[in-house]
Every structure is written in structure tokens, then in C-alpha cells.
């Protein structure tokens, strides 16, 4: 369980195939000098760009994970060298500053706009059709591991377009600063919305 409040920005420095098979997964080394790795042990969960992964090797300022081809097919930003948002898993007693995030990426969205508006930034993302029903005005969404609030939802042919206001601090301390029109992003919808849908679907039968 996570909160969507990024602990640090790291850097994927090495990408290695786990085998020579075409559908092999990858082993990634992530440099994380600003992440408190002293609180980590082998097997701990760390969210990387919003995807929950398991630490299989720890160094003083880096760690490694192994990611399956299935996870790679359902996410973006985890198959090449580059900056990534990192978050420690929650511990009992931690404050829930964002919202309840599972680290299970539900789908990939596409940025339709990223531009400064006054002192802030407007981020617009087109979410796929199967996620559109879970996105609501003033609801929560996780974008590349960052807990954000939806300010507007507009249904479109491909799903829906959501609009999000980003304060400068959020842009500064996350990888969201690198987003441009056309960028793909990992999306996780609010888990509560999924439970509500399930309960309503059973009542209608």
C-alpha cells in the first residue's frame, strides 16, 4: 500500500534481460541516493512510476528489481534508462497524505496538454475507455505514482480527458516535469471506485 506522495526521484541506470527469450522480463538497477534505503530490506515493496515492485538487491544508494514481461506490457517508463518516481510502502502509523494507492497500474494514458497556467500547471490526460467510468470530478487518480485530484472530466471517443492542476512543488520534486503532449503515463484509479462499481453491479442482478 502506498499514498502517492513521492519519496524521491531515482534513475534507472541499467536494464538487462532476464533471459534470451523474446518474452523475457527485465532486471533494473535504480540509483536512488535521495531514497532512505536504510529502512529497506530484501523483499520490500517500492513503487516505481506507480508500479509496485520488489527489491531483489540493495546497495548503499541503489537497488535492483526484476519485472515480468506482463508488467512491462501494461506500464510505461520501466524498460529504459531514465528518471523515475519512487515511494516506500506505507507502514502502520504513517500519515495518509495522498490517497490509498495499491501500486497496481490500471492502464496507460496519453498527455494531451502540459502547460503553465498562472503560478501552476495544467495537465490533461486522455484515459482509455475501460478506466473512464472510474474517473470523477474531485476524485483521486495516480499518475506515474503521484496522487492527484481530478478537476474536470470530459468524455471523448477514446475514453475521457481529465484535467489536473499541478502546483509548482509537485512538478519540481517528481518526474512530471518531463511530461509533454504525447507522453504516455501510468494510471491507477481510486480503488474505492472499483469496489463501488462491484457492489452496484451485484445489486442490479
Give a structural overview.
This protein is mainly beta and 205 residues long. It folds into 2 domains: 8-88, Elongation Factor Tu (Ef-tu), domain 3; 107-203, Elongation Factor Tu (Ef-tu), domain 3 (Beta Barrel), CATH 2.40.30.20. The protein contains 4 helices and 12 strands. The chain has helices at residues 69-73, 129-132, 168-172, 191-203; strands at 8-17, 26-31, 45-48, 51-59, 62-67, 82-88, 107-117, 120-128, 140-143, 146-156, 159-166, 184-189. The strands form 2 sheets. Strands 1-2-5-4-3-6 form a 6-stranded antiparallel β-barrel. A hairpin with a 2-residue loop joins strand 4 and strand 5 (62-67). The longest helix has 13 residues, at 191-203.
Looking at this protein, list some descriptive labels.
Elongation Factor Tu (Ef-tu), domain 3, single chain, mainly beta, six-stranded antiparallel β-barrel, 205 residues
Largest sheet: 6 strands, antiparallel, barrel
Q: How are helices and strands ordered from N to C?
A: EEEEEHEEEHEEEHEH
The proportion of strand residues reads 35-45%
Structural class based on helices, strands and sheet pairing: mainly beta
- Give the termini separation: 32 Å
Q: Helix share of residues? A: 10-25%
Average pLDDT metric = 95
Cα Rg: 17 Å
**Which CATH-level-2 architecture of the largest domain?**
Beta Barrel
**CATH class value of the largest domain:** Mainly Beta
